[in-house]
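Exercise 7b. Backbone tokens:
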């Protein structure tokens, strides 16, 4: 059993964000945590890892193309947030939740990677305020996404790779998703590709792996259970979109053996991954728009 407690970080399109602090909210202030990406702080709440071992269903015609995509089947929660960039500060808002971060000048070894980095971040809601710090400091905030279960997913870029942090707005718990897949040296996975919340907000699906690899993972935030869905390496997972029923989701892969984007469907009931076929550029872009990003 693995234990995880984490703090949040973000990355913004072609921007690095840093140094964000602020006065405490008039509401009760939630615990402030600090997490090192090399290790993870143990907590009383364990994260159970499950090997999903989903079967891979492949059409006999491996060059099959998807003629049409039924977009009415997808759950879309990407149109409720607002992002404002003012100089070296970024502000993200969704309902009563506000995320603020600033860029700061890089120091020491950081200067070899970038001139500016994201120093600290702040999330404020009616439940209180949380400060977020990551070590090492990230280069950019890529995206944030609010779930129906009052959790924020924060995606940030590093010099190589990226990190995804889940922040529970109710109790202040923060979890670094990369730590669900630990290497022999105790470090977490190097990157998280696309991710997305389920319609009820109780699960989050994502692509996880080291540079050049990507595996499908699902984390149940309610039961604190992580499922390694399959050992198949999809190289790069560019989009993930849940179906409205919350029992399955589609994802787009760009593997070394396929120059085109390929659409797959994962069914939690059947425990299977079905290869639907190659996508047109237009459908690839549309599915990308349903995946969290700035």
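Sequence design result:
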């Amino acid at each position: 059993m693995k234990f995880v407690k984490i703090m949040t970080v973000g990355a913004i399109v072609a921007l690095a964000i840093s140094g964000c602090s602020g006065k405490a909210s008039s509401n009760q202030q939630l615990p402030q945590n600090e997490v090192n990406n090399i290790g993870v702080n143990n907590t009383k709440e364990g994260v159970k890892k499950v090997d999903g071992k989903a079967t891979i269903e492949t059409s006999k015609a491996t060059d099959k193309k998807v003629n049409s995509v039924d977009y009415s089947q997808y759950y879309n929660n990407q149109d409720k947030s607002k992002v404002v960039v003012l100089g070296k500060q970024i502000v993200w808002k969704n309902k009563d939740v506000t995320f603020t971060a600033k860029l700061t000048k890089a120091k020491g070894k950081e200067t070899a990677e970038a001139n500016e980095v994201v120093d600290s971040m702040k999330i404020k809601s009616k439940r209180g305020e949380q400060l977020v710090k990551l070590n090492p400091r990230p280069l950019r905030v890529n995206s944030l996404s609010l779930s129906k279960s009052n959790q924020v997913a924060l995606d940030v870029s590093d010099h190589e790779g990226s990190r995804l942090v889940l922040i529970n707005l109710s109790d202040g718990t923060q979890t670094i998703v990369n730590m669900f897949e630990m290497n022999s040296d105790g470090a977490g996975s190097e990157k998280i590709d696309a991710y997305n919340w389920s319609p009820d907000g109780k699960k989050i699906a994502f692509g996880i792996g080291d540079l050049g690899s990507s595996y499908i993972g699902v984390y149940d935030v309610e039961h604190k259970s992580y499922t390694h869905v399959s050992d198949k390496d999809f190289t790069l997972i560019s989009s993930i979109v849940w179906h409205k029923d919350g029992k399955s989701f589609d994802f787009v892969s760009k593997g070394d053996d396929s120059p085109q984007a390929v659409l797959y469907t994962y069914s939690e009931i059947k425990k299977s991954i079905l290869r639907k076929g190659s996508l047109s550029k237009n459908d690839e872009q549309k599915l990308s728009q349903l995946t969290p990003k700035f």
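Instructor comment: The chain has one domain: 2-288. The CA atoms of residues 13 and 100 lie 15 Å apart.
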